[in-house]
């Protein structure tokens, strides 16, 4: 694997994400409503706002990958400590910001579908979510800034390295920053898991009510909207879990060399001289985070209309009362026959009463 091939692979990822995220930004800009940001009260408006912010952040993540591609296409281009530190802060900050926005979207969907609190508490939680997310991302970026003195350029000036050199503060900051990434991924996974669990429990309760009416259990199947919504949420959750889990686990691995290659190296595979299995794992784990930024627009924009309609349909179904009991065919048939028998009788009674009123009007002066 050569640096030129890796640069081309990175550029392909950048191109896919660039086209998709630019399309998202332009589409939302054309379809935006004449409202302020604070007046967006509906879940679809809030989701649209989160998606637009996510598209901008993902573009920044891809720009960091573009810088990596430029360095790979120029294998003899020298680096310095300032450029290494700038790339370290930029790359990890936008990655953490992207993960934070994804967590906000998962929380928004959880509140929309699950409705865990009363209306007033839920509204307050919705308003506090961006503030908590901003504080969370700011705290994570602070831990990255503490690590800056430990980021250096290598002796040959061709790569960046992280060396704590018995410094306690940068080492602790590195652990805390890894925990921030893991907390964001855990929030996303937990919210989507709770949504799927809630949908399945609702169907189980409905199935139990139908079975209680002495109907055949084999005739009961999961509604189409419910299966489609579950499949869409599973796809999103699995995509983020696969894209971020290797990166989060490797950051927590107690190895300074592994942490340095994952966090700071611009030219991977030890300047393309060592293609061991561990370095392939580092390369794939690092690329998956960029693939997440390049593929978010597919799940949150290209497929968003379908998922939003499914969520709205599920919300409307939840507002309805419990499923009504279906009458048996024999009772329906008997009631229909009774209506047929009574219809001419009622008509004759009505006609007789009309004739009697006419006769009385003739008799009475």
UniProtKB/TrEMBL annotation:
Q: Which Gene Ontology CC terms are recorded?
A: neuron projection; plasma membrane
Membrane topology of the entry: Multi-pass membrane protein
Q: What UniProt keywords are attached to this protein's entry?
A: Cell membrane, G-protein coupled receptor, Membrane, Receptor, Transducer, Transmembrane, Transmembrane helix
Protein name (record):
G-protein coupled receptors family 1 profile domain-containing protein
Q: Where in the cell is it found?
A: Cell membrane
Q: Could you state a single Gene Ontology molecular function term?
A: G protein-coupled receptor activity
The portions of this protein that span the membrane are 6-28, 49-72, 92-111, 131-152, 172-193, 232-253, 277-302
Q: Which ranges carry the G-protein coupled receptors family 1 profile domain?
A: 20-300
Look up the coiled coil feature and give its residue ranges: none
Q: Which Gene3D superfamilies is this protein grouped with?
A: Rhodopsin 7-helix transmembrane proteins (1.20.1070.10)
Task: Report the sequence similarity comment from the record.
Answer: Belongs to the G-protein coupled receptor 1 family.
Q: Which taxonomic lineage is given here?
A: Eukaryota, Metazoa, Ecdysozoa, Nematoda, Chromadorea
Q: Which Pfam families match?
A: 7tm_1
Superkingdom? Eukaryota
